[in-house]
Amino acid sequence: MGDDARPGRQLGWLAAPTCIVLLFSFVFPLALIARYSVNEFVPGQLMREALTPANYVRFFTDALFQRVFVTTLVVSLASGFVAVLVGIPTAFALRGLSARWRSALITLLLFPLLVVTVVRAAGWVALLNERGAVNSFLLALHVISEPIRFLRTAPALIVAMASSLLPYIVISIDSVLQAVPRHLEEAAMVLGAPPRAAFRYVILPLILPGIVTGFVLSFILSMDAYATPLLIGGSAIRMMSPMIYVQVSELQNWPFASAISIVLIVTSVTLSALITVAAAQRKWR
Amino acid sequence: MSRSMIRRSTAPLRMSLAAVVAFSSIAFAAGSASAQEVTVSMVGGTYGDVVEASIVKPLEAAKLKVTTAIEPHPVRLTKLVTEKGQPGSYDVVQFPDYFMYQANSYGLLQDIDTSRITAWKSIESAFLSPYDVPHIFSAAVIVYDPAHVSPPPTSFAVFWDPKYKGRVGALDFMFPQWLWMASTQAGNTTNHDFDKGWAKLKALKDAGLQTFPTQEALDSAMKSGEVWLSVNYRARAVQLTKAGMNVKTVVPKEGAWPVSFSFGIPKNAQHKDAAYTFLNAVLTPKAQLAAAEKIYYAPVVKGTKLPQDLESRVGFTPDEVKRFINVDFAYVAKNSPAWQQRWEEQIK
Predict the structure, then answer these.
(1) SS3 A227
(2) Taking CB atoms and an 8 Å cutoff, what residues of chain B touch A245?
(3) ipTM for the complex?
(4) pLDDT for residue A279 is more than 90
């Protein structure tokens, strides 16, 4: 066992550059933000040094911020969930293809990630506004007589967010699915399991780590999302990242903005850890 | 917990931050051998292009090395705050009026020696301030779609006209402007007492006021016909007409909320002489004209000659300027946090 550990120990220094970068670019700034979050805000001044829980108390007791917190959680979980629902069949479709087609389609799948988030969100705005492509199409077919307001609604935001998360989900499921031998399903079905049961009891447990990784990644990306909630959710669907920006840029309230940031980070990390642990223990069964 | 304990608890953090700032200052100083150079921090986009072409290029032709740092206003303000008391990275900073007021109130700017600004006496008096030199101005006015709004509005009262129910749009970050405007409909004629406007704003919300977090979102709603009436900068409205949209602007009888963009010198600037050279270039006819032609903001230097059709679209008549509210930034800064939260809760 000692022999097994030694090579790892010898190569540990290889992680030093990453650790140093993380220390300066993440740990120090985060510690500073945590410190600011217990300072006191005085309008017209930047902040007064203090050790007060007031900013956290305000966030969790004020109805407005409670709502923003819940909205952020619900939209993030829903976007991840929708992306998983669409991502699983996509990953299965990829599995059935030849290697050449598979790599071509994965490249296509990654293509949207090359487009800046703001531009992608602007595309959704062009599609969904009152004179947008979707409304024009439905009006032309006489399905509707008045344009529907899609923008600034939760479903539109969730669909737009899920679409941008899809590549992460599909790739993380695909990487696990590739390692699942096809004869396992065939064996299950030969032994009398209907296809649905073969998927539920044989395949799903095997690809679950991929689903969970994709979901957790999507969840964290959604919790942090800024441009898409701003452009598609607008003023109606409010999430935490745009709220932090308003506190910093419009009000210069660094202590409160810092407190919201810490809540956002702690919530993302805690929930992601819980989901991962729960999945590892298969509590969902 | 005692204050000394608080100090102790943050000392390592502050020391590490100070070390980073000091290190970057040394690096900066090492790179600045020539005396005739100036580092300017400002926003980019079309504004940055105009500054580059009409201010930076002529200065460089006159052998002044100008380095521009392009970044959003909050980022620049944050950097100024973190560098306070240390040698600064910037010799000149650009801000809109409200940000500039805040930078000054945090003790980050030095007062302008007006004897070193050649055109100081020609600046529109409404935009004179002790701590900056204005570049351009516009004002938040009524912007409307003439295809739907007729006759042309003359008062902010138009927003409460039942004919336009549900077709009024507001930009979230203009909450102080909307509150002031609503207060004028509740009889306020001062530059204080904005809180008188809440009942009127609430009524507007109940009548279907739509709110937008970004200019782009409001532009898109006006373009698609969702919104017919709003309050926005005249310069923005001219940009929209240039992009093919049919919108018009009016300064109503109650007045308008001016906005100016200006340049100031941080207290910790390293090249103050060159900074004054830059500030003087901001007021040259070339710089003033270029801003009007390219981004449709009005010149702050009195007597700047604009082509007739440009003047009529981007400019403000002396009578309109007289009706501008004299914004008390101290009052706005003190009340904004409470107003913003109420806007979030009741108006959005």
Answers:
(1) helix
(2) 74
(3) 0.71
(4) no
